[in-house]
Design brief:
seven-stranded mixed sheet, 25% strand, Carbon-nitrogen hydrolase, C-N_Hydrolase, 20 strands, alpha/beta, GNAT_dom, Acyl_CoA_acyltransferase, Aminopeptidase
Length: 513
């Protein structure tokens, strides 16, 4: 029998795990030791890493001490120039350009504490990266490798000659030699890669490890030079009806139209179910919305069924939902595979509070769909730039804005802000509003709308930054296509890049947990 009491003092566990917030201070100190002449990570960068791609951020813990780490993101490397810089490929270290649909794992950094460099810590981290690439079916791992000994030879060897000498084992370079021993192939020399890297004279080697188990993805985003998404915007008429069945018939008509045009999304306006109040005999607004909330199961069943039946992802406008005796204005995404997600309105208007006692939500979501990542911002949520910036940073390529307003001035706030958000964040923004009137419903008596599909303002997109727009104050639907592949290329290759060129060295944005 083993006496565990005698063994335990000698046990020192070595663990490879995901980086957590509690590790940030240790990682910054480790980086200062490993790279004393280079700027260490900022905590805002580390926060961005674990928020955007936690699987790619790994550390080695030995006897409860962080002694090594590596950081990665996923990209489509073909989208970048051969002579890219570190800041370009890592979004200045914030990895907001991480592409979950990409083919390549890009290694940003590997570091091992000097006291532990004989324990094969670096090899363990490289093996963990390889397992991650295999598990995620990524084509390869690409790294921009430092050549920290080059400064000693720069007076007599070019970077290429230096790399060849290292490959011939005539020179030992701790980074390049290590990478070659771990199965990486030298592709080319990169100039001006990392300005702070004086030891490498700002040069780097581009290296690649190929995943021999990679299975090509049968996704249109990889097989075509375009990824068109067709959107049907419904400018919905608010008029008196006699039953929920009549409401359902009107909604089904528009989903049917969207399906006939092979749309990927059908978008309905905010407060669409307020139309039900035209046959509910309740004059008190605060009590009327609670009666409206009783139709939540009917509403959910209707739109979920339509999404599946017509094979269209449906943004079901918004509906008042009661939770814990409070009323919320909630938008729903009904996917064509039958799944449902929701976004509660964050910023409640004075009228919503005064007439209906609506409460604001506290969660901001980005949703995965079969057409990329999307977000839903209800009405005046689009008027707060921080909210759109956050969902764009989380990867949303389309922001849907269901709205319901009563006059032209309020409508113009929504429209102009939607167009501004499309330009600022390099995304598509889709608005859908109500028209008509409900003569017997307080605070929904008149409506004003001109729904639209807005793009960034540049040569890659529609003239005037408008892919499609409804006629003012008319019940109608419009269809237009937006191309997500064009959007991705535009974010990486054009001169005016508002997301890329942000001064994240002097400001940042985050959600309080």
């Amino acid at each position: 029998m083993t006496d565990e009491g005698h063994i335990s003092p000698f046990e020192k566990k070595i663990i490879i795990r995901k980086i957590e917030r509690k590790d940030f201070d240790d990682l910054v100190e480790l980086q200062k030791v490993c790279f004393p002449n280079m700027k260490p990570w900022k905590k805002t960068q580390l926060e961005s890493h674990i928020r955007i791609f936690p699987e790619g951020q790994l550390c080695v813990e030995y006897d409860s001490r962080i002694i090594g780490s590596c950081s990665s993101l996923i990209v489509n490397f073909n989208d970048y120039l051969e002579q890219h810089t570190y800041d370009e490929i890592t979004d200045k270290g914030y990895i907001k350009n991480h592409n979950p649909n990409g083919e390549n794992l890009y290694g940003m950094e590997v570091m091992v504490h000097p006291e532990f460099r004989r324990m094969k810590i670096g090899r363990r981290l490289y093996e963990a990266r390889k397992r991650l690439a295999e598990a995620m079916n990524l084509k390869s791992i690409i790294v921009g490798g430092r050549i920290p000994v080059y400064h000693k030879y720069s007076d007599k060897l070019t970077p290429r000659e230096y790399a060849e000498e290292v490959l011939q084992k005539n020179i030992y370079d701790p980074v390049l030699t290590f990478q070659m021993m771990n199965g990486f192939t030298l592709k080319r020399i990169i100039t001006d890669y990392l300005p702070d890297d004086k030891e490498s004279m700002t040069y780097a080697t581009l290296l690649e490890w190929n995943n021999i188990e990679y299975k090509p993805k049968k996704s249109r985003i990889h097989n075509k030079m375009s990824f068109p998404v067709r959107i049907c915007v419904v400018q919905y008429m608010m008029k008196k009806i006699e039953s929920f069945e009549e409401f359902a018939t009107q909604c089904e008509h528009y989903v049917d139209v969207a399906s006939d045009y092979k749309s990927d999304f059908a978008v309905f306006p905010e407060n669409i179910t307020m139309q039900l109040l035209s046959f509910l005999e309740e004059r008190s607004p605060s009590l009327a919305v609670r009666k409206l909330a009783e139709f939540t199961p009917n509403y959910m069943e209707l739109f979920s069924g339509l999404a599946v039946k017509y094979n269209v992802n449906v943004i079901g406008g918004s509906h008042f939902v009661e939770r814990n005796n409070r009323i919320y204005n909630v938008a729903h995404l009904f996917r064509r595979d039958g799944t449902i997600s929701e976004q509660t309105k964050l910023h409640i208007t004075p009228n919503e509070q005064k007439w209906w006692g609506i409460n604001g939500g506290n969660e901001l979501e980005v949703f995965d769909t079969d057409c990329g990542k999307v977000a839903i911002l209800l009405s005046n949520d689009i008027e707060f730039p921080e909210v759109s910036r956050i969902v764009a940073e989380e990867g949303a390529q389309i922001i849907f804005v269901p709205y319901c307003v009563e006059d032209r001035q309020t409508f113009l706030r929504v429209k102009y802000c939607a167009q501004a958000r499309a330009i600022e964040n390099q995304v598509f923004v889709v608005t859908s509003g109500t028209v008509g009137n409900l003569t017997h419903v307080d605070n929904v008596d008149i409506q004003y709308a001109q729904s639209g599909i807005y793009t960034p303002s540049d040569f890659s997109f529609s003239r005037d930054g408008i892919a499609g727009e409804c006629s003012e104050n008319t019940e109608t639907a419009i269809m237009a296509e937006v191309d997500l592949e064009v959007l991705q290329r535009y974010k990486k290759t054009k001169d005016v890049l508002t997301m890329r060129d942000r001064r994240t060295d002097i400001y940042s944005l985050h959600i309080r947990s």
